[in-house]
Amino acid sequence: MSDYPTPDATAEPKPLPVLPVHALSIEPQALDIQHDTDPANDHGNARRIPHLGHALLFFVIVVVSLAFALIVTFGIAHIHTPAQMLAHPGLGLIAQAAGYLGALLISVPIFPLLWDRSFANGIHWNFLVAARRWPRIVVTGFLLSVLVMVATHFITTPDHAPIDDLLQNARLIWATAFFAVILGPFMEELAFRGFLLPALATAYDWLALERSPAGLQRWQSSSAHSNAALFFAAMISSIPFAWMHAAQTGYAWGVVVMLYCVSLALSYVRIRTRSLACSTLLHASYNFTIFALLFVSTQGFHRLEKLTR
Fold first, then answer.
1. For the stretch 231-249, what's the b/e string if a residue is b when 16 or more beta carbons lie within 10 angstroms of its beta carbon?
2. In degrees to the nearest 10, what's the CA dihedral of 301, 306, 307, 309?
3. Residue 307: what pLDDT?
4. Cys bridge to 250: 153, 158, 176, 228, which one at CB 3.0-4.6 A?
């Protein structure tokens, strides 16, 4: 027989004890997400990369690398004054290319250590998206470039801009075309759409975040940016992009405004496709169209005097 007592089926069940209301209520408390260092309340960091710290580090690497490349290149050529530098635009192009490559050689191994993921994954390269959509992207780049060139005819531009110095001879213009179609678009997209745009979007969402447990949960549950953050990031990141080209155009502000609009288009493609490869391909197609039309209009870069007419 069992040693346990047999329950009495006729006995009435005893009511459960009723706890006071204050024992069941939980007082909601807003968490200080930025300064909460209590291990018991440590919720970890959201995996939003690149953030502003990463973007700042990348731009520092680029600036230092470019400065070093300029010093070495012009030092080897025994060129020390600004006037001498302006007289040798080809050397400046070589230095810029060397600086960009140096920045890449430094960035590619460093950032995966910070991100715990590959460099391509961290910058949202997503090559397969560009591989599927490349015809549409290339056509869009062509149409965008033609539209900007047509609009330029209605804008006052200086008689001579610094960019014209890179169109002096066929060898120099070939080098400029290679840089503008391959390395230039990749580095500019990496800087402004790969690092700066998502970093600004993350900063916007952080500042707009509701300081409550619910807001914290939303912040940690998804790394997706809000539409408002992406709009803000596209508008702001396009300012330094356009400003970077201002000196090249002789500060023709109408052209700078158009380049700002081009940057917005590149940002839209980057956001819409979630692929930096797509915006890079659009940028390269845009630049390629410019040099392709120059190639045709100057009969294979043999009649460069037509550019000054």
1. bbbbeebbeebbeebeebb
2. 180
3. 66
4. 158
The per-residue pLDDT for 36 is 42
Distances (CA, A) of 43 to 16, 36, 204, 213, 258: 36, 9, 21, 11, 45
For residue 181, give the nearest of 290, 94, 308 by alpha carbon. Answer: 290
Tokens 């990031």 -> residue: 233
pLDDT exceeds 50 at position 34: no
Q: Does residue 20 form part of some domain?
A: no
Q: Is the pLDDT of residue 147 over 90?
A: yes
User: Higher model confidence: residue 116 or residue 31?
Assistant: 116
Give the CB-side neighbour count of residue 60, counting CA atoms within 13 A: 6
Residue 134 domain flag? yes
Q: How many domains does the chain have?
A: 1
Amino acid at 232: F
Provide the Cα torsion 233, 235, 237, 243; round to 10°. Answer: -170
Domain enclosing residue 180, as ranges: 123-308
5 has pLDDT over 80: no
Query: CA 79 to CA 52: how far, in whole Å?
Result: 37
Whether the full predicted model's pTM is greater than 0.70, yes or no, is yes
CB 301 within 8 A of CB 174: yes
226 in a structural domain: yes
Share of the chain above pLDDT 70, in %: 83
Spatial separation of the C-alpha atoms in residues 289 and 108, rounded to whole Å: 30
Q: Is residue 280 part of a domain?
A: yes
Task: Answer whether residue 195 shows pLDDT above 80.
Answer: yes
Cis previous bond, 50, omega within 30: yes
